[in-house]
Specification:
With about 290 residues, the chain is α/β, with parallel strands linked by helices. The chain contains twelve helices and nine strands. The structure holds S-adenosylmethionine.
Length: about 290
Amino acid sequence: MPSSKIKPSSAVQNQLNRHHLSAKKKYGQNFLIRNDILKRIVDVAEITKKDAVIEIGPGLGALTRYLCEASGFVLAYEIDERLRPLLEENLKEFANYQIIWDDVLKRDLAKDIELYIPKGTSVYVVANLPYYITTPILFKFLEEAPQILRYVMMMQYEVAQRICGVPQTKDYNALSVAIAYRATASNVFCVPKTAFVPMPQVDSAVVRLDVDSIPKIKAVDEDFFFRLIRLCFRQRRKTLWNNLSFSFPKDLLKQCFFELNLPLSVRAEELNVYELVQLADWFTNSGK
Ligand code: SAM
């Protein structure tokens, strides 16, 4: 990477100014300006030139440059078209990337991967996520792109805690379960607010998720399982019974709790991923 004597924060600001741009809060635009952290994120991902990487929100391309260097191909989704000239300028020495100028949440991920990434290539996600949509992005990728092998992502520190959450703790929720269903999570390192321009209001952390090569468990109907866990954790303070009674007839629930030996007072946070899959399978097998 080229080194520069200019302070990185002013370099980013100067670039934005030159293009008469300012960071958009509504898109979660906090640009990472520390090369040591960018390099560390890429190192944690353990990418090779044979691999393809999906990046969500390349922004000005700070991370994308490292990813283009380390991998064979980068597929990136960026919602903010204003950044196009800047991003193209910053990536001009690379040819191994494709930017999709669109909202990642609106994309058909399976189609995009099929179109841009040759079959048989190992695919990783590496991103400094837009924090306002971290959870929907993760659910979308876990549900729609099972071929992704590893995720290395910067996110809000509290969300990182939840991703690594285990049953019976305050951090455990539907997202922890969705992650535990497919992967093993590790909270890799924390990142200070001062590493970004503009500075965010929250602390950040980098999380690595290694998708299980052999699934530890498989729900009969995976789409239903992902929907059900969101219902189970709908309101944290409520019991599982209360949360599910919004969506299922009481008679069916009674039969389910009885057959699965679940106390009426149980809360979703007391159930591990295996028990939640068992619950989903019960409804699936009973015709819901
Ligand atoms: N990767 C850059 C970096 O590390 O400096 C920028 C990261 S910034 C935290 C998040 C980026 O995600 C911004 O560039 C923002 O425009 C983009 N973004 C926000 N919402 C998005 C969406 N729905 N789809 C695709 N990109 C989005």
